[in-house]
Structure formats: structure tokens, C-alpha cells
Specification:
With 217 residues, the chain is α+β, with helices and mostly antiparallel strands. It has helices spanning 9-18, 28-41, 76-79, 101-104, 140-194, 200-215; strands spanning 45-51, 55-62, 68-70, 86-88, 111-118, 124-132. The chain has one domain (9-166): Beta-Lactamase.
Length: 217
Amino acid sequence: MTMPLPKNETKRIKVLWQYDILDTVPEEVFDELADLAAHICGAPIALITLVDENRQWFKAKVGVGLNETGRDVSLCAHAILQEGLFIIPDTTLDVRFNKNPLVTTSPKIRFYAGAPLVSPDGFALGTLCVLDQVPRNLTDDQQQALRILARHVMTQLELRRHALELAKARSDCEKVRHDLVQAEAEIARLRKKSKLPPSPLKKQSAFSKRKVKNSRP
């Protein structure tokens, strides 16, 4: 099955990389949001996923041991194409997914609901999703909660990105300051080195001028 791609996929990938989040260590705030999604939706599995060129990577996970899967089997790769929630009540009844190895083998996903993580400039970078091993659905309140939690995940991604940018700016500023100190020290050294004593010829010329001046009546 050919995996559909979002519009402006090249730009979407570029924006994703700007967050510098892929393959980072677990962070408590994201783990807590995934756990809260699982609890509210009564689901044994919850994930915060980010979809790059070839895979979906899990920033946070509840109920699974995997860290990532290929994009070609990713349900979230379909979810990021949607404006809102993407819900599959029973994967075995959907021809797009009933032969997916994540459905036919472990973890044997039967139910999926994913809310896109949409950046401020409108690119869906991944999802906050909940999954179950039995067919089911979400109540209206659970659907709304999943949307709200997804927005909180995106807010945390934004805060994290801004913190990294600020840290880099401070580091760059410190480097510039260090380079200026070194430059000033080098200039001072060159100035000191340039203050050499007059050459013997200059001394002799100055002495002759004084002698001639003193010999005048």
C-alpha cells in the first residue's frame, strides 16, 4: 500500500527537525501527558508520536515497549493527514489497515484514535494517540479531552524549542564575548610589542641636531 503524504511534506519535515526532538531521552512532562490520555480514554496504550521521513518515533509511550515503527505501517501517518481526530473503531474492518502487521501481530491494534500535533504554522508533526486491543470508540468528552491534551503536547514542544533556542543564543553570546576578550588581548599585545626603543640612527640624528643648536651663537 502506498503511504499518502501530507501537502508540503518537505517543509513539514524541515519544521519537525527545527524542534530538535527526535531520538531524545524521555521527559516527564510528555510522559505525564501520555499517561493522562490513556487514563481519560480508558486505553491500555497511549503514545506521543512524531512522524519523520521513514518512521514514527515515540517521544512518550504507555503500554508498549517499542520506541518506533516504520512509517509504512504507521497509523499516525494517516492521522497527520486529517484536520481533526482520526478514529478507527475496528482496524480489522478497515481495508487500509486489516493487513497491517501492527494489527495482525503484536500489539494487535483493534482501535485507534489520534489527535494531530499541529505546529503554529499549520504543520502536523505527529499525534497524541490512544489504542486498544478490542474494537471500541470514544465518548464525546474523551474526544474533546484528547484534542485538548494534544494542544498541551504541542505547547510543551514549543516551550522546549524556545528554551533550546535561548540556550543556543546565550552560548553564541558567550562565544562572541570570549572572542572579543581574546581579540582585545591580542591587540594589546601587538601595541605593547610595537613600542620599541628608537633605533641608533634616530638617536644619533637627534644628538646631532642638539649639538648644532647648542653651537649657534
